[in-house]
Amino acid sequence: MAHTIGVSGLRKRYGDVQAVDGVSFEVGAGEFFGILGPNGAGKTTTLEIIEGLREPDEGEVTVLGERPWPRNAGLLPRIGVQLQASSFFERLTAREQLRTFGSLYGVAAARADAMLETVGLADKADVQVEKLSGGQAQRLSIACALVHDPELVFLDEPTAALDPQARRNLWDVLREINTEGRTIVLTTHYMDEAEILCDRVAIMDRGRILEMGPPATLVRGLAAPTRVSVASGTLTPEDARSLPGADEVTDDGVSLVVSTRDPSAVVAALAARDALTGVQIHGATLEDVFLDLTGREYRA
Hints:
2 domains; Fluoroquinolones export ATP-binding protein; 6-stranded mixed β-sheet; Rossmann fold; ABC_transporter-like_ATP-bd; 13 strands; alpha/beta; cell membrane; ATP hydrolysis activity
């Protein structure tokens, strides 16, 4: 696979804070690549260096075969950037907003109008941006990043603060964009989002990449127990602890949960006791991998 992005030995310091500390990775053409990490992990700084918005202290970066710094005007028509905070021209409608962005790249009005359809905002074309919902504003922001048909798209926490329905609608938009062959680099705090959308993810903390690979591969590599749950009262916690393969049992009054390394033995034993009411089986997730690597303490 051809490489769209190459990062080697990247470092960036702000005073006493080492924001990025020796980061190296590559992103293939057409790949959906995620960068995950807690607050202050260095995700946004890494992205801004790759985009050519910040100068690295050390390291090398190539984007589409070129160096983004010093600010490379030749790259601008080939990349699209959606930042954490979206800023629009005041009092313009969604159509006028998108046409204005498009005009900066010599894009025809018809192309800008077509992007409204792509992101599901055709019915909001004449609505002023101040009156759009959070999800609609995020979709318009992504449309602005795509209006000039870039080869590479950077999305910095595009679904932050959106409700579940708006997030999932936006996921559909992102899948379609990627299916069209564009390379996407995404930062997000939502593990389910990364697990569903990304071909590969890099988990960062304290400026370093801790693990990198396809989400399913990272999850399989985590030696985490499977959780088998049934409705409380189906059997007592004491009976559950006697089940073959049961390692730990908890009961919160709603669900009785058995943690096990041998889920088939536990499920078979529950079936033999006719105790499968409300049964659910939960394996490890990317969130488990994330917490195992970065810890569980709160980060402001």
